[in-house]
Design brief:
The complex is a heterodimer of chains A (518) and B (413). By secondary structure, chain A is an alpha/beta fold. Chain A has three domains: 235 residues, Rossmann fold, CATH 3.40.50.300; 181 residues, 3-Layer(aba) Sandwich (Rossmann fold); 74 residues, no CATH class. Helix content of chain A is 32%, strand content 26%. Chain A contains 17 helices and 24 strands. Chain A has a six-stranded mixed beta sheet with strand order 6-9-10-3-11-12, sandwiched between helices. A six-stranded mixed beta sheet of chain A has the order 18-21-22-15-23-24, with helices on both faces. In chain A, a hairpin with a 2-residue loop joins strand 7 and strand 8. Chain A is globular and about 70 Å long. Chain A starts with a strand and ends in a 17-residue tail after the last helix. With 413 residues, chain B is mainly alpha-helical. Chain B has a domain of 264 residues: ABC transporter involved in vitamin B12 uptake, BtuC, CATH 1.10.3470. In chain B, 74% of the residues lie in helices and 1% in strands. A two-stranded antiparallel ribbon of chain B has the order 1-2. Chain B is globular. The C terminus of chain B is likely disordered. Classes of the chains: A alpha/beta (518), B mainly alpha (413). The interface between A and B is large, with 42 and 34 residues.
Chain lengths: 518, 413
Amino acid sequence: MEYTIEMLNITKKFGPLVANDNIDLKVKKGEIHAILGENGAGKSTLMSILFGLYKADNGTIKIKGKEVDIQSPNDANDLNIGMVHQHFKLVGVFTVLENIVLGMENKKKGYLDLETPRGKIQKLIDKYNLKVDLNALIKDLSVGAQQRVEILKMLYRDAELLIFDEPTAVLTPQEIEALFGIIREFSKEGKSIIIITHKLNEIKAIADNCTILRKGKHVDTVNVQKTSVNKFAKLMVGRDVDFLVEKEASKPEENVLTVENLNYYNKDKTKKLLKNISFNVRKGEIVCIAGIEGNGQTELVNLITGLDNINEQGSKIILNEIDITKSSIRDRFEAGMAHIPEDRHKHGLILNFNLAENFISNTYYKPQFQNRGVLNFENIYNYAEKLIDKYDVRSSLGAKSKARSMSGGNQQKAIIARETSREHNLLVAAQPTRGLDVGAIEYVHKTIVDERDRGHAILVISLELEEVVNIADRILVMYEGEIMAELDPKKTNVEEIGLYMSGSKRQGANGGSKDGEN
Amino acid sequence: MGKIKQFFLKLWKAIKNFFVNFSIKKVLKLFTNTKVLNSLAAILVGLLVGFIVMVFVAKDPFTGEWSFGTALDGLNRLFGGGARSPKNFGEVLFRSAPLILVGLSVGFAFKTGLFNIGASGQFMVGGAAALYAANLLTLPVGIHFAVAALAGIIAGAIWGFVPGILKAVYNVNEVITTIMMNYVAMYLTVMMVTYPKVYDQGLTAINTNFPTAHTPVLGLDKLFPGSNIDISIIIAILVAILMWFILEKTTLGYQLKAVGNSKDASKYSGINYKKSVAVSMMIAGGLAGLAAALHYLPIKPGYFRPVETINLIGFEGISIALIGQSNPLAIIFSGTLISYIKEGASQMQLYGFNKEITNIVISVIIYMIAISAYLGSVVNKRKERQKQLEEEDEDDANRIDDESVTKGGEING
């Protein structure tokens, strides 16, 4: 049978880094083909080559058996290739309709004609049930709706091959289900689909075949139905993966972090975001805060770490017997706190600084790195080499790589390296595995458990229920700014936590108090 | 005290190393640096465009008719005027010191993520303060100059601090506040100039007869006989090296650059964002204030007149910082270059050319530098493509790739 698209012997190098090494990819008509790989395995590079964003150093691309030369995304459009990027390429202040026709505008006597395309797009919306208001501004839409706009953009350009780059990363479970329904519809019509992902269960749910990449190399192409999830993980990471985190029972000792009566209002004091939060974290235990996004977890972390300031009397945060309620961020670090932030691009890294400079971003003033205000670059680079070695942070230029140029997984590794290497006894980790692949997640979990076994107190905020159950020694469930329950992971299950998370169940009268004698 | 002493010892060591390691090879290497090459090309294009304009307007000074020869003479003066004699070159260096410092003022702020449009205002108040100190105080030679220069620095720093603190605390855009501060400075200095104790009716400017406060010459006029050169150029160069040292080698520079690159990430890291912004603007203002001191204090000083116009030097500072790409060491050269072109332009007037042609030259240079980044990437792409073609002929290329991958794997595993 003829292939819709064939990519043969594709090689692409960035300096000394070989992003794609002799990769083959073949997709048939009507096939849903997944591309699986860790962060930095070369998935996005391969797709960027197909979409004309990069030019391959070597190799050929054939469409319906004919060799083609794709120089730019415009060429890709002409060849009916469409792509939904991980970060959407939409103009925020334009309407949905304007965004869809952008670059392919209809003209009537020299004037912009939006009415002819409107009809065509409305037909597409009805046909695939891609509900979206054509007159709404992009900036007012949810991420899920924005993604539908991106899909409409491809359909409007009559794309026959649809590429989705990590389409589910930003969606809720319901939205994911709806998206998969649409994708199945496309495949029934004979369109070919490529999905880039590192979520194994999604591949099982939707794909026919799967190509696995590892460190820029083609590992295998397999039939999804005949392959188990464990096998996928092994092919992707190159070894067996523990989905369960192995750890011994925790032996909690004295209190490290105590939060008392924490209340917090939003900026104009119209809504209470945190209500009477009290809990503690002890030496040698991992406390996990579970909850659906937007129920006050971010605010809680920001108050504990000092990114936001307390605006309500009576709230108290105590770290190692020091009252840090109103301390500066540096004083909190000095008091023993380490912080893996939720947003690694916004807070975690200075993207234009290199790795070594990022490793010292909160310790540069220590005598080890400076002498009377003059930086000691010898020590700084030695320290960087040590961390790169110990934490296996990979990048093209080592300590001198710009943080911006690194893959997401390695950026997170760099942050973890920095935070766990400096002196601390409390680690606050906000969604430490967000957007990471299986191998990296396993690594992060192991690091967190190691941290605990070294006698540190750990507070983890996570949206992933499985992660919570896996690594926690104690679970706190948050709903609408309140702690609904304190649970023992050994005596509970995902379903029970789910009930607390959705607010349909509440533990006792003073749910989630600071009694921790389990 | 010990802290400051140690700091200067380190600084001295860095300066010493700079000169000890100085060699022709390094200089030649510098010229193969693409950034430097781009700047040089931009300057040449700027002069060429200036020449084309001159060809159009050239008139023979005697006959009044169009003359290509006159255009050539003009170009000769524009291009070579600054180096015709030791006197001319001494004059170039003398005039360049304030320009370098104003360039540093803009460039330093820019490196830390701030756009200082207010160098003009900081220059004006700095100049007024320096002249007040020069006229009203009685101090020994040398010390008087230092105190007057310090007064200029402090006044400029205050003028930079106001927008800095507004940005830090209330997040007011510094572009707007520094422009406003230019106007405040303009009206304030108009009032200050006419204060009877400093105003000279004959000059219609602040009195310039203050023998003890003039910038010391230290015998530099023997190197460039006939010129007005004094130690201001040495001060400017040392300050530029100091700024480079602060930005690249100190914790203060690290903080300022971190804040300039990412406000959020520096906040997360425990860096005091507000303090950094205020400090950065203060340093920028102080540099412009020092520039003013070096402009108004020499034996042949600039005149401070009560005119209601904003001194344009702050905008020249933007040009100089742009040409030097905000690198303090490069700004030494870009400031000198502007001074050199200006010297050429003043000589060009001998042939009937308007000296405003220099503005065309400078604008074209800045445009060229702005697009050189684009041109550079085109050249790089072409180079890469050529390399690719060469590699396709070699079958070994793939094998080398394989080796490097497995090597990487071993290290990682």
